[in-house]
Amino acid sequence: MHLILEGIVPRTFEIWIEASKKRKRGQELRHGTFQLGQLAKPLVEDLAGLGGLGADIKESALEVPAALARSPENIYQHYRSYRAQNWFDFLQLFAHPLLDGRASLEVRKNLALLARIYSVSTQGVLTEEDIRYLEGAVLEFVKSYENLYSDPAVCTSNLHGILHLADGAKNCGPAWGYWQSR
C-alpha cells in the first residue's frame, strides 16, 4: 500500500510542481540531462492551477464526510507532510474531479488507473480474474507513466516494485496482508 501511497503518488505530485515552477519561470522542462516528458505543458496548466487545486481541497473540508479521519489540507502547501492516509484521500476522492480542467486527459487516465489498481489489490479477497486484471493494468500503468514522465529519474524503485504486484497477489493474497513500507 505504501508503495503507491507514499511512493508513486507523492513523486508524481512533485513532478507536477517541478514542471509548473519551471514553466512559470520560462525554463526548459528538463530534469538532469533528459527531457521531462513531451506532455509537460498539459501535466498541470500552471502553478496557479496547483495552488487552486490545494485551495479547492481545503475548501471541500466542510463537505467531506465525517468518516474521513482528518479534514483535508491544502495539498499544494502541505504535500511534504502528507502521510499515506492523505495520499489515499487524494488518490481515491479528490484527484479525479479536481484535476478535471487542470491536467491533461492522459494524466487523469493514468492516475485513475493507479487508483483502480490500488482498489483491486487491497480488496478483501482476490479472484484469479482480479490477478489477471492486475497483471495487465500494472503493465499499462507503467508504460503510460513512463511515456508521460519520460525522464529516467522518475522511474524509481516504487515504479519497478509495482510491476511485481500481481505476483505478490498470486503468492500472498491481497496486498493489505503482505505489503510493508515502500
Descriptive tags:
single chain; 182 residues; mainly alpha; 9 helices; 62% helix; globular
Would you kindly provide a written description of the structure presented here, covering whatever features stand out?
The chain has nine helices and two strands, in the order H-E-E-H-H-H-H-H-H-H-H. It is mostly helical. The chain has one domain (2-177). Strand 1 (30-31) and strand 2 (34-35) form a beta hairpin. The longest helix has 23 residues, at 2-24. It is globular and about 45 Å long.
Instruction: Report on the biggest sheet.
Output: 2 strands, antiparallel
What's the shape? globular
H/I helix tally: 9
Spatial extent as radius of gyration? 16 Å
**Cα end-to-end separation:** 8 Å
The overall number of domains is: 1
- N to C succession of SSEs: HEEHHHHHHHH
Q: How much of the polypeptide forms β-strand, as a percent range?
A: under 5%
Strand order of the largest sheet: 1-2
SS-based structural class?
A: mainly alpha
Determine the oligomeric state from the structure: single chain
Mean pLDDT: 77
Percent helix range: 55-70%
| Number of beta-strand segments | 2
